[in-house]
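Escalated from tier 1: uridine-5'-diphosphate holo job.
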Amino acid sequence: MKIAMVSEHASPLAALGGVDAGGQNVHVAALARQLGERGHDVTVYTRRDHPDLPETVSFGPGVTVVAVPAGPAAPIAKDEILPWIPRFGRWLHDRWLFDRPDVVHSHFWMSGLAALDAAERLGIPVVHTYHALGSVKRRHQGLADTSPRERIEAEAAIGRRADAIIATCPDEVDELIRMRIPRTTAQVVPCGVDSSVFHPHVEPLERPERPRLLSVGRLVPRKGIETTIDALRHLRDAELVIAGGPPAAALHHDPEITRLRWLAAQAGVADRVRFLGTVGRDRLPALMRSASVVVSVPWYEPFGLVTLEAMACGVPVVASAVGGQKETVVNGVTGLLVPPRQPLVLARALRGLLDDPVRRAAYGFAGADRARVRYGWSRIAAETLAAYEDVISSRGLSPLDGRPRAAG
Ligand code: UDP
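Tier 2 regenerated the structure:
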């Protein structure tokens, strides 16, 4: 199958942990690689955000990343990309006129707009994954939400225009129904985890002297790191290590780190909180293995790859009962679910777990098992490909040449 993926701001080539580089980058990169390894021809279209970026970069067997010229060849915050999306869409259209994919999979709402503008005119089916929904963001962030005003309306329209929506958890489907997107358009295919990289047999990076809580992710307020800092006041023997944000050398200039450090000082726990900056994926499994518990307590979470990666490493998780985490974590089996933004409840859950090595080991074991069986790439890739095949055949096209199927 010839597959075009569109991911306007989240390039598979980007460094992770920055404000706009997280789960979507990881998911698009992994999905493209997995499909390429299965013999499909995958092109990922992303916005050219650096003058030195070549137009095409090979990204493993069968996968090419194409840098689309739309807007300045420099990083732009994702909330500022919208004005360049019509140009992005026109470029895709001109490209697909002579290099026609069988199916387009767009990631994030602005990619959906560009992909649909191009593909609708050419009769190419489009599958869309939102990764995050503006309505949810607005509900939780209120005035702090800097998304373009058009976002919520545009997301509803994408849901009505796309051939299929791949939601990453059942919670998202509920939200799509609230947006009046037909239920039959959406199906759930969760994100996958590479269990050859994230697995329980990785040697821990170090053996810390005290119980280690680990937080991994983009350093933005909605990730709820301050809840864990607050909980640390009640866990006097534990340390909190925080991975994510800028590279280690730039930690002192990061406003969110400054804010979190100040909160830690106010709570009297600053000496037990350590910021690592962004940690490469090659070191992440060993870092996770060095933790007693991985804590992920965002206010809301479309999927939550970190929680799944920790489970895959056999590390118990304490996660907020939101979005995708309600599905990945089986409460009391692979970890614990707690309400978001409740430091006391979090502290109590962590205390119980830190004091009970047998339960930690049991959660870790069950988590690794669940990650491998339910979220391993062989299953996730097969479910994604089935969604592509469905939209191709329901348009009466043939997956191999993208042309109408011969009668009979
Ligand atoms: N990540 C990483 N290094 C870091 C911080 C994050 O590799 O320093 C990765 C993390 O392992 C995960 C992704 O970035 O794969 C974050 O995805 P998640 O779904 O947890 O959150 P999002 O960024 O999508 O909100």
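The pocket of uridine-5'-diphosphate is lined by residues 16-17, 22-24, 26, 216-218, 243-244, 278-279, 281, 284, 303-306, 309 (CB under 6 Å).
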